[in-house]
Write a structure and sequence with these properties.
By secondary structure, the chain is an alpha+beta fold. The termini are far apart. The chain contains 11 helices and 15 strands. The strands form 3 sheets. Strands 2, 3, 4, 5, 6, 9 and 12 form a 7-stranded antiparallel beta sheet that branches. Strands 1-11-10-7-8 form a 5-stranded antiparallel beta sheet. A 3-stranded antiparallel beta sheet has the order 13-14-15. It has 2 domains: 237 residues, Phosphatase 2c, domain 1 (4-Layer Sandwich), CATH 3.60.40.10; 74 residues, no CATH class. The radius of gyration is 23 Å and the shape is globular. About 3% of the residues have low confidence.
């Protein structure tokens, strides 16, 4: 039998964001990280809803079943709120959660999106989850090398999240655990800044989980801190070994460096700090303002270049079904997005003589959902639709 010998968590806005859309939940043997998206308010609402879904007492059921049902319920809640409130339209969140079964010496993991879970054992770091992202799908298909995937401009495009659809598929698995194992759950604000080798070194040399999470967040910020950074780490030991004082605390939402703060107090402090930062910026000298403006223009040019490359590459790699201007089922190559000035990231390749409104609801959703697919998958789906409608 095992016990949780040490645990710690930390969340940080990062160097380039004005608000923290990450949330976390820690209680007893349950650990959750959620990375929201859809704008400061919407993203925070989505991630908080996902974290709060684990607040109720867990039923007596297999951990994998608990994870699946809890995350699916959170998805429905987020989706319904987005549909009901125009200000929350488009919100979503990743979720990576772990339930520790100390008696069975196992960790059950539920996962949607591109947050991650890792296990450090004897100095070797194993990634336990698979990113639901466009770049990860391309890497698995051999279209990108690991090195290319690490720095790809479309790395942030995720293909599965809580919220966008009424139903979501949850990846669940159970991994063995043993004394000395360290488990890490984190948002992509950490993994976009630090590679796995760097993360492994920081975890291995840390004297405690608190020093580990602090080192990880600090290093991610030193590397650029492009996104919110949230980290949970815990270490397992034999139950017979001397135990540390129990934490016994529950925390939902962004935490702080000081212990014992509630989520509401943390958010209030974060808002106050953001307002103070803004006042300092407004009081800065005009020269500093001009320098910042030049820097922002240069950064914008870099982003535009990256997006342009990403759009070109995406147009060559992914396909989706949609409708044309006449409402007919159509096959597209590229990404279902438009940039400013009418720049489309997709082009139409074929229109079928079938009105999307004539399809059964499930088939119609498969067309209007614009799910990204390989060319063969997209063509196969189109052929199935045509066959079901009696079109050769």
């Amino acid at each position: 039998m095992l016990r949780i010998d040490d645990q710690a968590f930390r969340t940080d806005t990062g160097r380039q964001r004005n608000a923290n859309e990450d949330s976390l939940f820690v209680r007893s043997q349950v650990f959750v990280v959620a990375d929201g998206m859809g704008g400061a308010q919407a993203g925070e609402v989505a991630s908080k809803a996902a974290a709060e879904s684990f607040e109720r007492p867990l039923p007596k059921a297999p951990p994998e079943r608990i994870l699946t049902e809890t995350i699916e319920a959170a998805n429905r809640t987020i989706h319904e709120r987005a549909v009901a409130d125009p200000e929350l339209t488009g919100m979503g969140t990743t979720t990576t959660a772990a339930i520790v079964d100390l008696e069975a010496e196992e960790i059950a993991i539920g996962h949607v999106g591109d947050s991650r879970a890792y296990r450090l054992r004897a100095g070797k770091l194993d990634r336990l989850t698979r990113d639901h992202s466009l770049v990860e799908e391309m890497r698995r298909k051999g279209q990108l090398t690991d090195a290319q995937a690490e720095d790809h401009p479309q790395r942030s495009i995720i293909t599965r999240a809580l919220g966008p659809e009424p139903e979501v598929k949850v990846d669940v698995q159970t991994v063995p655990a043993q004394a000395g194992d360290v488990f890490l759950i984190c948002s992509d604000g950490l993994t976009t800044m630090l590679d796995d080798d760097h993360i492994a070194r920081l975890l291995a040399r840390a004297s405690s989980m608190d020093s580990a999470v602090r080192a990880l967040v600090d290093e991610a910020n030193r590397a650029g801190g492009r996104d919110n950074i949230t980290v949970i780490a815990f270490r397992l030991e034999d139950a017979a070994a001397p135990a540390r004082d129990p934490e016994g605390a529950t925390l939902i939402g962004p935490s702080a460096e000081e212990a014992g703060l509630t989520a509401t107090e943390v958010r209030r402090r974060a808002a106050a700090e953001a307002a103070q930062k803004r006042r300092r910026e407004l009081e800065a000298k005009p020269k500093r303002h001009r320098l910042r403006t030049v820097a922002k223009v240069l950064a914008l040019l870099v982003v535009i270049g990256a997006v342009a490359f990403g759009a070109w590459y995406g147009n060559r790699q992914v396909w989706f079904l949609g409708t044309d201007s006449a409402g007919r089922v159509a096959l597209y190559r590229g990404l279902p997005y438009e940039l400013p000035f009418g720049v489309k990231l997709y082009d139409q390749r074929y229109s079928a003589p079938i009105q999307s409104e004539s399809l059964p609801p499930k088939r119609r959703d498969a067309v209007t959902g614009h799910d990204l697919r390989s060319q063969s998958d997209a063509v196969s789906l189109l052929e199935e639709i045509q066959k079901s409608q009696g079109v050769p």
